[in-house]
Each structure stands twice: as C-alpha cells, then as structure tokens.
Amino acid sequence: MQQLRQTIKQAAPQAIEVISYNMPAFKLNKVLVYYAVHTEHIGFYPTPSPIAFFKDELVNYTTSKGAIQFPIHKPLPSTLITKIVKFRVTEDMEKSQKKNTQ
Q: Residue 26 burial by CB count (10 A; 0-12/13-18/19+): exposed, middle or buried?
C-alpha cells in the first residue's frame, strides 16, 4: 500500500491526499484516484476513462468500469500506475481549464 501511495505521489506531486468515500485518494481540482486494500488485492480506482485508454496494458488484471485489482502477492506495476495517474492529472487539468473558460 505504501508503494502505491509513493508511486501516486511521485506521478502527481501537486496533488493533495484526502479521504473520500472512506478511502484514501489524491485530489487536484477533483479526485484523481482512490485506492484501498482488500483481502486478495489492492483496489485502484482511477475512474473509467483511463481504464478504457489503457485497456491493452490492463489485460493481466481484473478490471471493471472504474476499478483495477492488483493482486497482493504480485509486484505492483509502478510504470503503468504512473502512466494512469499522469493521464488523470492531464484529464483533470483539461477539464478544469475548459470549465474556467466557459
């Protein structure tokens, strides 16, 4: 869990840590990602858009519309997590800028 937290912090150093829906999360203008530990996996919740965008890289993981499950007994895919978090940062900034120009 600490490795996941550090990977997210490094990918989005400007994000702040919050608790949302009773889970740890990282937020800029809106929440970027949530995460939680479960019995057999770490749940990573980056919203639906990056799951669709990175679907080819996520074939080895259980996914749903807004969640990715990383098995506890396997190493975390830090590079993939970093790409997903940076994708969310870009998405968040674009949505915020678009909202501010309307």
A: buried
Per-residue pLDDT of the chain (102 residues; tens, 9 = 90+): 899 999 999 999 999 999 999 999 999 999 999 999 999 999 999 999 999 999 999 999 999 999 999 999 999 999 999 999 999 999 999 988 887 776
Map out the domains of the chain with their CATH numbers.
Answer: 2-91 (3.90.1150.200)
**CA separation for the pair 56, 17 (Å, rounded):** 29
Q: Evaluate whether 33 touches 84 at the Cβ level (below 8 Å).
A: yes
Helix, strand or coil, per DSSP, at residue 77: coil
Nearest by Cα to 69 from 91, 85, 46, 87: 46
- What's the pTM value of the predicted model, to 2 decimals? 0.93
